[in-house]
Design a protein that fits this description.
Rossmann fold; 6-stranded parallel β-sheet; two-stranded antiparallel sheet; 7 helices
Length: 179
């Protein structure tokens, strides 16, 4: 059997997407999963999907049943990362809704006891973020968005991080624990 890999999903959040991608592109043995909105956001921030494909396999949200999630049942992945993650995706995950590639990946990772590292875009009542074109601005997540983030922190096999630095630290720790 091949060496297990890291599965990384990007949803439609642009929150520190450039920093997440900069780190992601340094990693080896990664399969990248893009929701339809994730693909759009990457393009808005200037990322070329064809160039990313030259570095790693890229799976896109094109099928109703999300066939690639079956790879969790074959031991293909040791860890699932979803970063950055929209409040919409967090809400669906918290409710157990698995109707997209990203939410299905999270659901199946949990069912297979594969650890997940999640970086929600809504982690504090006031936050600075970056829009396409590198313009910084403030956002104010709603109470319900923050409640979703708090709730997903209680899920088994799930580690929630609140910054890019914490994301990098958690992924690096996870990878180091596997060697």
């Amino acid at each position: 059997m091949k060496q297990a890999k890291l599965a990384w999903a990007i949803t439609g959040s642009g929150h520190y997407i450039e920093e997440c991608m900069e780190y992601l592109l340094t990693l080896e043995n990664v399969d990248l999963y893009l929701s339809q909105a994730g693909e759009e956001v990457l393009k808005m921030y200037g990322f070329n999907i064809k160039e990313i494909r030259e570095q790693m396999p890229v799976y896109r949200d094109k099928a109703a049943s999300a066939p690639p999630v079956g790879l969790f049942y074959k031991g293909h992945y040791h860890t699932f990362v979803m970063a950055p993650t929209t409040s919409n995706t967090i809400a669906k995950c918290v409710l157990g809704i698995a109707d997209s590639l990203a939410t299905n990946l999270y659901s199946q990772a949990g069912k297979c006891r594969v650890p997940s590292i999640i970086y929600p875009c809504d982690v504090a009542p006031e936050m600075e973020t970056t829009a396409p074109g590198k313009k910084k601005f403030m956002v104010y997540p709603r109470k319900i968005d923050l409640e979703g983030t708090a709730k997903i922190k209680t899920f088994e096999y799930t580690e929630v991080v609140e910054s890019v630095e914490a994301l990098i630290e958690q992924v690096d720790q996870r990878l180091a624990s596997l060697t």
